């Protein structure tokens, strides 16, 4: 699960997502070309887009600015209670893919995660396959098969 903390999700001004962005939990402020969110101890915080899709490439930069985690959320419902998240976690020192519905950890990729450092995450989905790339790497750091949320809306 995401933990209390503050992180910056850079939303590039040239985003190809045409849906409406909405806040779900936490406190959100505009910072440069992105959004900075802070979660509470009780709830996670999400900044979600309403555009739908099944197979896609979804990417963004995450910078965690206080202890905790920041994530890209995809194939999620509008409340963030179902779907997937791939995050960078400063406490556990991992990139983590997890199921938001069950809270189940799907895969961890151990790597030093520094406060204030930006990490580029890219998620490529095709059917039940999910690939996660880190920092423009040529090979995925995660390559998994998941059918649970393969036809949910993209966030």
Figure out the total of helices: 0
Residue-averaged pLDDT: 81
Identify the overall geometry: globular
Tell me roughly what share of residues is in helical segments. Answer: under 10%
Explained architecture:
The protein contains no helices and 13 strands. The chain has 155 residues and is mainly β. The strands form 3 sheets. A 7-stranded antiparallel beta sheet has the order 3-4-1-6-11-12-13, with no helix packed on it. It has a 4-stranded antiparallel beta sheet with strand order 7-8-9-10, with no helix packed on it. It has a two-stranded antiparallel ribbon with strand order 2-5. A hairpin with a 2-residue loop joins strand 3 and strand 4. The chain is globular and about 35 Å long. It starts with 5 loop residues before the first strand and ends in a 10-residue tail after the last strand. The model is unreliable at 1-14 and 151-155 (pLDDT under 50).
Relevant terms:
155 residues; mainly beta; seven-stranded antiparallel β-sheet; four-stranded antiparallel β-sheet; 13 strands; disordered N terminus; disordered C terminus
Question: What is the gist of this entry?
Answer:
With 155 residues, this protein is an all-beta fold. It has strands at 6-10, 21-24, 27-31, 34-38, 46-49, 56-64, 69-74, 84-89, 94-99, 105-110, 118-126, 129-134, 142-145.
């Amino acid at each position: 699960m995401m933990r209390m903390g503050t992180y910056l999700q850079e939303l590039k001004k040239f985003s190809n997502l045409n849906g409406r962005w909405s806040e779900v939990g936490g406190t959100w402020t505009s910072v440069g070309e992105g959004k900075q969110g802070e979660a509470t101890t009780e709830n996670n915080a999400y900044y979600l887009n309403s555009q739908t899709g099944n197979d896609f490439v979804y990417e963004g930069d995450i910078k965690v600015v206080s202890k905790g985690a920041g994530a890209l959320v995809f194939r999620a419902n509008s409340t963030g209670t179902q779907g997937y998240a791939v995050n960078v976690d400063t406490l556990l020192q991992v990139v983590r893919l997890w199921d938001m519905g069950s809270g189940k950890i799907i895969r961890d990729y151990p790597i030093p995660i520094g406060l204030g450092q930006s990490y580029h995450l890219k998620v490529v989905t095709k059917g039940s396959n999910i690939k996660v790339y880190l920092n423009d790497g040529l090979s995925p750091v995660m390559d998994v098969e998941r059918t649970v949320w393969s036809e949910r809306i993209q966030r």
